[in-house]
Design brief:
This protein has 372 residues and is an alpha/beta fold. 41% of the residues lie in helices and 16% in strands.
């Protein structure tokens, strides 16, 4: 670390999803570098597990009042003012434009000239799903433009932000890819005699198309007996469970729910399935690649910036479950091919998406906006 330690406030959603995971990992890495990190969130972030030096958590309490339908954004702004005042924060780093960047801007207006600087990281659905809806467009565009720095994890999302929001070209956006701890997410021993395994990990929302995961698996399972392990939970889980029962696959499909530690599951996988309708980056895919697991995914969004088709996995058209199943069958039938792609996947994660260089880029961004 170069320069004096910083005092950083990080706000993210604490839910099971890529944005919260990335935000938490950034904060933990910054704390190890000697910075003081304050998480200001509605709940404990998903991977903030136990006591860590230089890391503090401040819960946003959105109390219910008869006239307040959605008090979280206001409660967050108030808590940001409080933490910034008493902890003398240098900057806010918020993940998602609305409401987090909006709340931070309000807090800065209250704090006045001594307010912390504001860095906003966009993650995808805040732009491609919510942000460009007409009812949110003006405040989304304003909150991004009012930030001192804006980052995104992929060139795809950078281009989409300018296009969908009509953001002025003079508002700079920096691409800092997501990253993975390649020491933790690493290949491991495979249990002798273990069944062939496919894995999917998500928040089970419609965009993830978990039903397609089951459809792909059903086609593969008819040809080669194997198991499907589903990690995560969300609104589509009951529908997916029903589909599994209807297809007679109950004994072959395992629902693990939300898991904080699941590296061993990935290490035993032959392929990772990600047939999403939209992905700005695909952190779950990167974690699989780092474990040496080829990924079969939709050719959408920023996934092509993470997965090299034919080398570290296969990219197929959205909804093309037959083509995805055939790609998985290629991996299961051709062991030399699977091993080559496994080695290439691991090498790609190490070379292109290591944690510390990416965190160093965030730290450089902070010092740039602080003028240090």
């Amino acid at each position: 670390m170069s320069g004096e330690p910083l005092r950083i406030g990080i706000t993210c959603y604490p839910t099971f999803g890529g944005s919260g995971i990335v935000a938490t990992e950034i904060g933990l890495s910054l704390a190890r570098r000697g910075h003081q990190v304050h998480f200001i969130c509605g709940g404990v972030p998903w991977r903030l597990d136990g006591f860590v030096d230089n890391v503090f958590f401040h819960e946003v309490e959105a109390r219910d009042y008869p006239l307040f339908d959605h008090p979280y954004a206001l409660a967050l702004a108030s808590k940001m003012v409080e933490v910034a005042t008493y902890e003398k924060l240098d900057l806010f780093h918020v993940h998602y434009a609305i409401p987090h960047a909006t709340s931070a801007h309000l807090a800065r207006q209250i704090l006045g000239p001594a307010a912390p600087r504001l860095v906003t990281t966009l993650h995808g659905t805040d732009i491609t799903v919510v942000g460009h809806e007409r009812s949110f467009l003006p405040i989304t565009r304003f909150s991004i433009a009012a930030s001192d720095a804006v980052t995104v994890p992929s060139q795809y999302l950078k281009d989409a932000t300018y296009e969908l929001l009509g953001l002025p070209g003079e508002v700079p956006i920096e691409v800092i890819p997501n990253f993975v701890d390649t020491d933790e997410y690493a290949p491991g021993p495979r249990a002798p005699g273990a069944p062939r395994r496919l894995v999917h990990n998500s928040n089970f929302r419609p965009l993830k198309r978990v039903g397609d995961v089951v459809e792909v698996f059903a086609r593969v399972h008819r040809e080669i007996p194997c198991e499907l392990v589903l990690i995560g939970d969300g609104p589509d889980r009951s529908t997916v469970e029903l589909k599994v029962r209807e297809l007679g696959l109950t004994r072959a499909v395992k629902f693990l729910g939300k898991q904080l530690h699941f590296v061993e599951v990935l290490q035993g996988a032959d392929a990772f399935l990600l047939p999403s309708a939209s992905e700005s980056f695909g952190l779950a895919a990167l974690e699989a690649l780092s474990c040496g697991v080829p990924v079969v995914a939709s050719d959408v969004g920023g996934l092509a910036e993470v997965i090299t088709d034919g080398e570290t996995g296969f990219l197929r058209p959205l909804g093309a479950v037959d083509q995805m199943a055939e790609a998985v069958l290629r991996l299961l039938r051709d062991e030399p091919l699977r091993l080559r792609m496994s080695q290439a996947a691991r090498a790609s994660a190490i070379a292109r998406f290591p944690r510390e260089p990416m965190v160093a880029r965030y730290e450089a961004c902070y010092r740039r906006v602080l003028g240090r």
